[in-house]
Design brief:
Rossmann fold
Length: 211
């Protein structure tokens, strides 16, 4: 049986990753390919429980090292219980965030070294990387407008951090993609959902044509 393909969508707050993950899964499914959509942190009962600890507003929060450990633990469960089994049965997996988010948030903006974040990923998830990572990039004004519309009831613990933090996240994503262009497709996310989906479809099309 042919192994499935693993695609991750990355980007800062308001980039539209969740919407684009669903649209991409629909487009892949329309070609007769079984596809699973999931998210991080989350995707399994254990990982969803950790998500509540990380993003909920109760308590005093976590310092970057504890955050990184919790994300790595959630990802380990996610990989072992959902992602790898799906890939091994030939399904494609579309994931809203993966390890590059930890590298950008807990690493670039949180102050941990990239090597430390990747070491946690190596230990927890055997270093699994997506076949393709779609980095959706938007300008700060677009992000602010989308977040104002989305977070009318308030942002989560990480999304609600200050502008300097999120600028550091964006810069970290850019550095990672510059350093590893072989596994990234950079997508202009400033247009409407249909335009962004078109750019994503173009980036994914070569994978659809390969056996």
């Amino acid at each position: 049986m042919t192994r499935g393909r693993f695609i991750a969508l990355e980007g800062g707050e308001g980039a539209g990753k969740s919407t684009q993950a669903r649209l991409l899964a629909d487009a892949i499914g329309a070609r007769g390919i079984a596809c699973t959509v999931t998210r991080e942190p989350g995707g399994t009962p254990g990982a969803e429980a950790i998500r509540a600890l990380l993003l909920g507003l109760e308590g005093e929060g976590w310092h970057p090292r504890a955050e990184a450990l919790l994300f790595a633990a959630a990802r380990s469960d996610h990989v072992e219980r959902l992602i790898r089994p799906a890939l091994e049965t030939g399904k494609w997996v579309i994931c809203d965030r993966f390890v590059d988010s930890s590298r950008a948030y807990q690493g670039g903006a949180g102050g941990l070294s990239d090597a430390d974040v990747l070491d946690l990923h190596r230990i927890g998830s055997s270093g699994l990387l997506p076949d393709l990572t779609l980095l959706i990039e938007i300008d700060p004004d677009t992000a602010a407008k989308r977040l104002a519309a989305r977070d009318v009831a308030g942002a989560d613990r990480i999304g609600g951090r200050d502008a300097a933090y999120h600028a550091a996240v964006s810069a970290a994503f850019s550095r990672i993609a510059d350093a590893e262009p072989h596994r990234f497709a950079r997508i202009d996310g400033n247009g409407d959902a249909a335009a962004v989906h078109g750019a994503i479809t173009n980036a994914v099309m070569p994978m659809l044509s390969r056996p």
